[in-house]
Design a protein that fits this description.
Methane Monooxygenase Hydroxylase, Chain G, domain 1; five-stranded mixed beta sheet; 60% helix
Length: 296
Amino acid sequence: MEGLSKKLSDINVEIIGVKEYHDKYQYLMEDNHFFNFNKPVKHTKIYDMSHYAYGALFLPKIQQRSEQSCYFYLDDARFIIIEEHDWMKDLLNQIANEINTIELTKPIQVLLMIIEKMIYSQEKYLDEIEEKLDQQEEAMLNNDGEYQPDLDHEFHKYGRDLLAFKRYYQQLSEFCDLLDEYFQEIVKPISRKKLQYLSLYAKRLKDDALDLREYVMQLREIYNADVSNKQNRTMQILTVVTTVFAPLTLLTGWYGMNFKHIPELEPPISYPILIMVVIGIVIFEVYMIKKKKWLN
């Protein structure tokens, strides 16, 4: 394919589109029902067909990055990648620039390098999420009671991305295990060890994603509890204010009914007495509120 490194082309690594695959390799599909080009790829997987294998590679949509996918065919002599975009082409050329000192003899070596690149290239996103979560936790502790309305949405987004990471690395780990099992005869011992290492490393990253997702859930619970406490505090203050003014409202209503005969209002001293009564009621209520610790 135009644009693919000669070093890869020399060992029969090829990237083609769907139409070209149908035109050029129709016979490869006679005993295979795996390729469904009308349905988007959503999983990284591989299927053993005795002397060859079919599979798919999938990079999920995480953060601002769009999802990518391709199908592939692999046997001892060739490695065919079917894609409509340039995701794998760019990845292979990037790999080719990094392997000048490595002798490539079999197409399966290229698949191993792709899997390795897929595992390592996404690890930085986990580190970025962990750093952002640490910063967010610090901000939550130092926000001085300030409400952050978008924070719950951010936690939801982090949880969704980490779940995608978990599935991504789990599929890559299973892919390595199956590749090791299916291709024992053509995978060199050193490559088998690398496959086993990549499988374990992918499992560790999957566990890291799960741990971070648990961390997100804990932060979300702390945030929601903090929001709930602030709301309860507000309601508590409103309740206290209502309690303080309820007796005063009763007095206002009682003496504001405009009856003709309210004898206690006739003496000149009645107004100061009523003021003293109101002040006494407020002092008593404040004392009881403090005693009951309603505002603590």
